[in-house]
Amino acid sequence: MKTYLVGGAVRDRLLGLPPGDRDFVVVGETPDSMLAAGFRPVGRDFPVFLHPDTGEEHALARTERKSAPGHRGFVVHADPSVTLEQDLERRDFTINAIAEDADGNLVDPFGGVRDLEARVLRHVGAAFVEDPLRVLRAARFMARFAPLGFRVAPETMALMQRMSASGELSSLVAERVWQELCKALAAPQPSAFLRTLREADALAVVLPEVDALYGVPQRAEYHPEIDTGAHQELVSDMAARLAPGDTVVGFAALTHDLGKALTPKQELPRHIGHERAGVAPLRRLCERLKVPLEHRDLAIIACREHLNVHRMLELRDETVLELLERCDAFRKPGRIEKLVIACEADKRGRLGLEDQPYPQGPELRRLHAAALAVNARDLATEGLDGPRIGQALRKARIAAIRAARQS
Ligand SMILES: Nc1ccn([C@@H]2O[C@H](COP(=O)(O)OP(=O)(O)OP(=O)(O)O)[C@@H](O)[C@H]2O)c(=O)n1
């Protein structure tokens, strides 16, 4: 059986990055011969099989990689006469179209190694347009590789712009768009995802709520020299630095200021009420992309509460308790930590404040712990019951917060 390692595993090893999943391409086989060799099929539309021992994915060489409406992946036709080169020719980027045989020899007909060395993301050929998701893939590869010095080749960017103009991006299914956004948020530089999509005229199609922040001025005392769009880029990169790989924090950081596109664009914008105004566009985005509940819930809390967290040190004890209650922190303990990191990214994602500490974080955690130390069971043993327990619990928790503040 002629089997080659392809795609991300070869690319990442050549870049000296830690190896991820290994994908293989198999030449000259049919679904029946794969089954006869003990491989297990994956799904119905994909001629992909799992190795009986390693469980690694082996795809039959194919000449079509179209995404079809309603399909999560490709509609493909396996054909044993398809050569390795024909398969590689239909792939997205030259750096993803390098194959390696079992002896470690590279097969690189489209100059992938040269482009890796030159740090260029270049499409392989005309088949690039077969899958509009590739515009988003380019952007998420930039989120990962821009810190290594990568740029998109001008001819590839021109092609991406034509793909955006064709209107095909709006046919992408939500799950595929969300998956690329998530991979970008898990990468070291999510801002490169946003910038690449903007340059390709695609951000307004796939994330119009995020795109709407560009051109909206920031509050003068923050950084008047950049707009709200640039602020969300800085905040997203800071979140990736503070919580690497945490897409729940990353999504909250990205979307916390969506309301600023809706608050009046005065000469000295103060964006009063943007934290409440942002919830509606955020919910719309989450519904459209079928964002998982964990991501959605934290993003809504961060959107609504980020100003309260910033003001935390000045808040009254009652207001601190309300903030903690609104965060649902008593039921989901990890959430307060993530909220604090998203808010810290907001604060430190401002020019000149990158290395400043964020005292609200440790303080909020400390008060949260003090409030949590009081529980309803303690009060029940004091003979209280029913609605009076709720009131007493509130009072006792406010007292605990007050005591912790003074200690
Ligand atoms: N729309 C797509 C999706 C995938 N591929 C090809 O299939 C390979 C595997 O895809 P995937 O696992 O999504 O990406 P990787 O490149 O492996 O990157 P990573 O694992 O880092 O996500 C890619 O390298 C690329 O050659 C493609 O050409 N077009």
Automatic annotation (TrEMBL):
Domain HD residues, every copy: 228-330
A GO biological process held by the record: tRNA 3'-terminal CCA addition
Details of cofactor binding: Nickel for phosphatase activity. Magnesium is required for nucleotidyltransferase activity.
E.C. designation(s): 2.7.7.72, 3.1.3.-, 3.1.4.-
Binding site for CTP: G8, R11, R91, R137, R140
Residues holding ATP: G8, R11, R91, R137, R140
Pfam families, A to Z: HD, PolyA_pol, PolyA_pol_RNAbd
Keyword Secreted tagged: no
UniProt keywords, alphabetically: ATP-binding, Hydrolase, Magnesium, Metal-binding, Multifunctional enzyme, Nickel, Nucleotide-binding, Nucleotidyltransferase, RNA repair, RNA-binding, Transferase, tRNA processing
PROSITE patterns: HD
Reaction(s) this enzyme catalyzes, per UniProt: a tRNA precursor + 2 CTP + ATP = a tRNA with a 3' CCA end + 3 diphosphate; a tRNA with a 3' CCA end + 2 CTP + ATP = a tRNA with a 3' CCACCA end + 3 diphosphate
Record comment regarding domains: Comprises two domains: an N-terminal domain containing the nucleotidyltransferase activity and a C-terminal HD domain associated with both phosphodiesterase and phosphatase activities.
Miscellaneous section: A single active site specifically recognizes both ATP and CTP and is responsible for their addition.
Subunit structure: Monomer. Can also form homodimers and oligomers.
Family, per entry: Belongs to the tRNA nucleotidyltransferase/poly(A) polymerase family. Bacterial CCA-adding enzyme type 1 subfamily.
Name the record gives this protein: Multifunctional CCA protein
Species of provenance: Luteimonas wenzhouensis
